[in-house]
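Incident log, entry 3
Record: 2-amino-3-ketobutyrate coenzyme A ligase like protein (344 residues)
Problem: checksum mismatch between cached and fresh output.
Input:
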Amino acid sequence: MYRSVISKLFLEAENACKIYTQKCSAWAATKVLIDSQLDGIKEAKTYKSERIIVSKQAAHIKVKGDTRSVINFCANNYLGLSSDPDIIEAGKKALDEYGAGLSSVRFICGTQKLQESSSARIRLIATDGVFSMDGNIAPLPEICALAKKYNALVFVDECHATGVLGKTGRGTEEHFNLNGKVDIINSTLGKALGGAAGGYTTAKSELVDLLRQKSRPYLFSNALPPAVVACGIKALDILTENSRLVNTLQENTKKFRSAMKAAGMNIIGDDHPICPVMVAEENQATLMANKMLDRGIYVIGFTYPVVPKNKARVRVQISAAHSEQDIIKAVESFKEVAHELSTL
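Fresh output:
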């Protein structure tokens, strides 16, 4: 009896070892492939080490391993509201009143396979309001004209336009004086509107009602924490009260773009705070970003596959929180680094 038990244990142990060896072999083969990919990125000098911010999101931040305060030119904090005292206070009040979160999805339901109708004739034109890597604004008048011609709906993702474009920061519609012409607007609370998290969709009430019934992200995602919602509402209140922050952002953007072009830098995009500084070689983007950080300017280099091949750039993002001195220092630093790398 004991022998049979011991034999069984040995057999189970042997099988376990075989399974472990097979798993190790599978991982070993996978590791070779992963290491090869990483080595290739490092050899091309496009490897990006993630930096750790150890302060609040603001125009001036602190990075782990650096005792200095550096000027932040790579955040989506367009209006400088991430550290706004009123928004932070609104979040604190919501935490006290409603708790950390709702710990549930908005509605529990089963899944259903949707059957496409062969006779469906709904057309939808979808576009970004602002393209995040180039800083280009979508040609909305032409898109709306196309939609009218073909009896189509227009969907615009306004993540980099809300709080940025238009006289009051309403986005691409307002920028082109086309308020009410877009059928569906998708945007975020995670950028200009305080930078917390989450987003929203606006459309005709019937469409929004259908999304509440059918949209998988809505049905199967936890509701936003009350503190996040409170921060977003407060940010919208601030935007509604006056356009001071929007005006400051637009003025700062013009100052930076004009100064960079005057310095001979190759800066692309439209009149938007996303300001891509193009470089000649792929490996120069990360190198330039590192040398800018040495001078106290925090920016990030982007290379393939994030952007197309031979389109490497250092993306600069302007904020209403930046002072004129911040912008001047950034431009002067770019000039110094460009001369050092012989990119001018």
